[in-house]
Amino acid sequence: MQNDAIVRPCQQQFIYHLFKPMKNNFNFTESEMAFVTKAEQYCATGEQCRSAVRDKLLTWGAGQDLRERVVDYLTENDFINEERFCRIYCESKMHLQKWGRVKIAYQLRSKRIDNTTINKALQEIDEEEYHKILTTLTENKNSSIVEPDNKKRRAKLMSFLSSHGFTISEIENAVAALGL
């Protein structure tokens, strides 16, 4: 069986950086370049947002000014792209964690990403897949609830789906489809 490695865009950028110098209008000193290189490698491991890189630089001991300059450098050289990060984050949380739009948006806001970028990424979610995930999640949870009273079963099901970040109207439609 052949092992095909998946190369993320940020990894491609890091590999490209090894062979062609990046834009460096930031005049980093030699000691600051250590932080830049470490941050580039961090971004190459997976998509990151600006706040995550800032936080990581803080744990490495970089000062406020240097953190901002490094993040600006990484953004200018496409190591950090918040639109790309939001798209990937939305897709992965929807498919892997079975989260709804409300929870995804809340988590992205906690990462200090602006609302226009979040809304753009949420609009790119495929409606058919989204409703399929909601329906499957509803059916699976309904079958696992051991409650003979339909009102209590409905309340538990709605609470569960709400905790996963689906809107009330989406939840009501999914629960109504089960006949509860």
Rg calculated over all Cα atoms: 21 Å
Beta-strand percentage? under 5%
The portion of residues assigned to helices is: over 70%
Distance between the termini: 47 Å
The helix count comes to: 10
Structural class: mainly alpha
Poorly predicted segments: none
Total strands: the figure is: 0
What is the H/E order? Answer: HHHHHHHHHH
Global shape: elongated
- Tally the structural domains: 3
Overall residue-averaged pLDDT value: 88
Largest sheet descriptor: none
Keywords:
single chain; 180 residues; mainly alpha; 3 domains; 10 helices; 0% strand
Strand and helix layout:
Elements: H1 9-19, H2 30-45, H3 50-59, H4 64-76, H5 82-97, H6 101-110, H7 115-123, H8 127-144, H9 150-163, H10 168-178
Write structural notes for this entry.
This protein has 180 residues and is mostly helical. It folds into 3 domains: 9-80; 83-123, no CATH class; 127-178. It has helices at 9-19, 30-45, 50-59, 64-76, 82-97, 101-110, 115-123, 127-144, 150-163, 168-178. 25% of the residues are buried. The model has no long low-confidence stretch (mean pLDDT 88).
In short:
With 180 residues, the protein is mainly alpha-helical.
